[in-house]
Amino acid sequence: MHELQIAQNIIIIVNEELVRRQVRKKVREIALVIGQMRAIIPETLRFSFNIQKKRHTQLEESELLIRENDIVVKCNDCQHQFKIQEPQFYCQKCHSANIEILSGNELYVDSIELAD
User: Fold this and answer.
1) Which H or E run contains 82?
2) Which residues contact 116 (CB under 8 A, 6 or more apart)?
């Protein structure tokens, strides 16, 4: 259950950003981008985040918004770009294993929205 650790890290990142910018307002939303290769279960991450946020006054009313990015790869032999659903790391067009991952491995806080 690595989602618990990820939830804790999100809270650390957001709190550090609030301190760095000297923000005293409460957080309304935290937008997160997660690539499908990360194998994170969004519902489990939200559950873990909702438990952890209660210990932080500025975050206790916040909502975690999650955008999942597809896994997109490119064949370096024929230049074909395509999405994959499962870890099948070969080109669908020429069957080469010489592929490059373009997206789907992301994990970052995209934005923090403050309450009025």
Assistant:
1) strand 81-84
2) none
Q: What is the pLDDT of residue 87?
A: 74
Strand partners, 108: 33
CATH architecture of 3-70+103-114: 2-Layer Sandwich (3.30)
Distance, in Å, from the CA atom of 80 to the CA atom of 74, rounded to the nearest integer, reads 6
Q: What is the pLDDT of residues 14-23, one digit of tens each?
A: 999 999 999 9
Rounded Cα distance, 49 and 9, in Å:
10
Q: At what angle do helices 42-52 and 3-20 cross, to 10 degrees?
A: 50
Per-residue pLDDT tens listing for the chain (116 residues): 699 999 999 999 999 999 999 999 999 999 999 999 999 999 999 999 999 999 999 999 999 999 999 999 999 999 999 999 877 889 999 999 999 999 999 999 999 999 99
For residue 33, the tally of other CB atoms under 10 A from its CB is 16
- pTM for this predicted structure: 0.88
Domain boundaries, the chain: 3-70+103-114
